## 1
Amino acid sequence: MVYSGYKRFAIKPRSGKMTAEATTDIPEERKNPSRARRSDAIRNEKAIADAALHVLAEHPGASMSEIAAACGLGRATLYRHFASRDDVVRAIQLRAVEAGARALAAADLDEGNPVRALRRAIRALVSVGEGYRLLSREPALDPGVLQNQPALAGQLVALILRGQSEGALRDDLPPEWILQTTASLLVLALRELDAGRLTKEHAAERVADTLLDGIATETRSAG
């Protein structure tokens, strides 16, 4: 299978053994070769995830062999980094979470009305998610990943707690419940985006409206 529309990603080979030198000015990676090898592995895995993102966006059913070929790797090398295709998908998801955390950091969530800040957060995450919407086709997609990623989840939880303390958000719901509900709605929005049933703007609005206003015609249902 021939892939087009993206470049091959350069994967750095793992380093060899450190040789002794008659100097105390030895770079950190020379002093700690195991740490340097691990850093190389992390960089390689991120590069593989980025390459796989392009492959799977173009060919959703791409196999491990096809992903390896697109990365310029042998199949065995790819398996040294990822035991399965699901592991590759999870690595892409983590890259999406990292991008989401950066987007939230730029959204000034600690400023202004908490509800409006939460809407900004949702717009930022949907905007990032648009570039990763292929994940919505993958059974390995895990909405619970947010709770295990403090760089992203911490910003949302802090905003939720601020909203609760200021009386803008209900304080009878645990922040973790609100966080997980938000994540599940975002996954649904990605699926609608991927299917072409919603635009990015409408997807963000629908997530925010559902989360903040629910489905009842009043703030609290009469039942």
Note: Residues 33-58 form the longest helix (26 residues).
## 2
Amino acid sequence: MLDIVNAYLEELFILLPRFSLLFIYALLFALVEIEIEGKNGWAANLPTWFRRTPWYARIFAFVLSGKPLTGYHMVMFLIPFFSFHLGLAFGQSWSWGFEIRVVTTYLVWNATWDFLWFLLNPHYGWSRFHKGMIWWHNGIWLGRLPIDYIVALGASVLLAAIPWLIFKNISYILYQVSYIIFTVAAIILIGYFAPLYQRWYHYMRSAPKNEVPLRQESLARGRKEVSKTR
């Protein structure tokens, strides 16, 4: 038993940098989406298409608790999923074990990205993260979490348990549980510093008076150059 614990601790020491990189990746996605969407989540004010009635949109809504499908989210969900496979472009070999690791990691990572958007967004934050305040998360909630997060975490653990149930390989489920615990701890830490980011967010939008004409001048010059090329 002691050997198993020591082996797990050694593996965990190797995994911590990977978990950190995944968390930073989710954090960057959340931050860039805050810059893009602001307070209008789920691409509400973006120039993208929006579907509820086609069969593919109904499947999407069934999987994600009634959320409408948008062109923005179709692309944004695929970018990280494919980026998790980039190792294949640099010589990493594919296997079913690799794909299980990718999918289980993606499920937790996606929920992390989404929650960080709310936690850091000055228009929401933890105080406004509850049922009735977010129209696209208006399905079932369990406590303070929408059902989508619970399903994602549960599905990731169940999928990671398959190698254990079939091949008695416990490494996948240990990895997944460790990843979830690390992510929760990192979210709590980020939540502590969220007010600092939110103040910086508002500060950067209160541009000095001399910046306003400079921005207008830059836009006018750019449009003028474009009109010359037509």
Note: The chain has a mean pLDDT of 91.
## 3
Amino acid sequence: MVNGEWLNHWLNAGTLVGGAMFSDRDLDSLYPVNSALDTDQDGLPDAWEIANGLNPFTRDTNGNGVGDGEEDNDLDGLDNLYEYLSGLNPNNPETIAGRPDGAVDTDGDGLSNRQEQDNHSDPSRVDTDDDGISDFNEVRGTSPQYPGWYTLPNASLSPAKAGVLQISGVGQYLEMPTNQPRLSLQGSWTIEAWVNMDPAFGGTGTVIGRSVGSMVNYQLGIAAGLPYVRFAGVYNGNLYPVQATGTAVLNRRSQWYHLAGVYDKDAGELRLLVDGSVVATADASVHPSLVDSSSVVVARVGEGFRGQIDEVRIWNVAESGTNISVTAYKPCEGMENGPVLYYRFDDGPFGLSTYSTSVVLTNYTGGISTQQLLGATVEDFAMPLEDWKNNLLNAGRLVNATMAEAVNTPILATDFRDEDSDLLP
């Protein structure tokens, strides 16, 4: 309608009926300050973009061909993404009076925010890649472990090293994410790992397992020395377990076995493989439901085991015995149609069984405190790189267990790949 509608006594206006009313909604209620919602996927949360004069629905607010995250509105040398990561004002070159934003060291690790930007590291984390070497030591080559080496602060495989999951006692394991649909496998699947049993291992423990209440989504383990793979779901209201168990006791200690379990839903078969050979099968022609969202999910690696575990992989397909044998001896990150979970245990830090260092940071503009807790995460190499931007959302969490450097791992230490020479893996 044209302006001046009031001259027509609001003839064309709508009418509120039945107690309906207008409500005053501020931006804070629509876009909470701490919300991680990022509609345009430019790395900047919607609330932060709105608060700083940017459009959260487009990556290029001013249409100049430069994305909002790469813009430097206040010409202080920090782009908007690093202003956000540093907790600074993108429209003020000196958020802290007298101190250029680029010269501020938000996380107190010895690298200025501008240096963090130049090295693609996180200005709010002392150890961006959580490999046990601070960003400062990686960039300056002052690490006691690798003196004189420049290594990437944002790549846990730089420097290259070979590690394993070390389980030395009761109550030690690695916890997988419990709330991610990628690990809830309702169709065919393959789970595999290398295991090196300690002489003190009693012969019964879980290698990989995910259960939902009374149901077992998938489980690979050893019971009384015999390897097995199993699942248990509900069929016609009853718990329906399926298990394939090997007949030969795994009696080698301090040597590596490769174990794999395959559920082939189309073939209606559950298969167990040891060192690349099928040693047991079980009929799985009935397909029980493995969904029970109301129950507690338990997803762990190494619970009850004692020794070393390496190269844990979970696939959402039934891998053939040939493929399992071929890929068991080489890393598989970056593979097309790769695993949905992949723990290499090469990322470090080694020897830390729990969160060891906490750094409380203050966001200069919002007064928000954040914390980096180091040493308890295991990187999932099936996920996109730079998971630190998600606060390591996809990582596994060590519970009393440790990652340990080892010389006799099935796969030798391999460094990151940098195919486009941009200093990013």
Note: The helical segments are 27-30, 46-51, 80-86, 113-118, 135-140, 321-327.
